[in-house]
Amino acid sequence: MKLPVAEDAALLPSLLTVSDVLATGHHCAVKAGIGPGTSVTVIGDGAVGLSAVLAARRLGAEQIVLIGSHKARTDLGQEFGAIEVVSERGTGAAERVRELTGGDGTGTVLDCVGTMEVLQTAFGAVGDGGVISRAGVPQYSEGPIGIDMLMRNITLTGGVTPARAYIDELLPDILDGTIEPGRVFDRTVDLEEVPDSYRAMASRESLKVLIRP
Q1: pLDDT tens digits, residue range 1-36?
Q2: ∠ at Cα 167 (166, 169), nearest 5°?
Q3: pTM
Q4: What's the rounded Cα separation, in Å, for the pair 145 and 156?
Q5: Which of 61, 81, 132, 150 has its CA 20 to 30 A from that of 25?
Q6: Which sign does the torsion angle of CA 119, 30, 33, 64 carry?
Q7: Strand blocks (E) in the chain
Q8: What is the CATH classification number for the domain harbouring 61?
Q9: Segment 177-198 mean pLDDT
Q10: Is 101 left (phi over 0), alpha (psi -120 to 50) or beta?
Q11: Of 131, 166, 168, 118, nearest in space to 22 by CA
Q12: In angstroms, rounded to a whole number, what is the distance separating the alpha carbons of residues 14 and 5?
């Protein structure tokens, strides 16, 4: 897709996210049915999780809870629209979300990690009749989707983003400065530094790396 900016434009980092993390976070939010007045818990403070926070706010979510334990990342999440930050993990995280919602849990939960622990946290944080949407690639083949989920009327959804389908919707908000998803990039490297960049992201030294050939 041809973009109306130069290759050295300041908007380039944000534009790059449309083909990757922003589109993924947006798809996760769309599959959850997030709209004006909804409540959402986003699990994961990586680039996709933070993009999901931004997407939820853009779609009109009223209450956004971000579960994450890295302050620099959760601070950015709050700038993107998170109202509350929960640093606990597992059962403690789900209990904290319920405390923040008067015991009900949020209407939607966005899983932006993909582990079994996070899926269980999602079931604990979501309210009855709610939706869990998964963007994180599952690191498991079985999960707690039996009678408990059925009796609580919980919907489990998610999937791989059709990024191109969202570009026309997301692009105007980037071009006019309404959103700045490119802020997830905290390191810029050339091609020779790519292996070290993967190691930096794996060790949580970097959030997301931008490569300039």
Answers
A1: 888 888 778 999 999 999 999 999 999 999 999 999
A2: 70
A3: 0.95
A4: 9
A5: 150
A6: positive
A7: 39-43, 63-67, 84-86, 106-111, 126-134, 155-158, 187-189, 209-211
A8: 3.40.50.720
A9: 96
A10: alpha
A11: 166
A12: 12
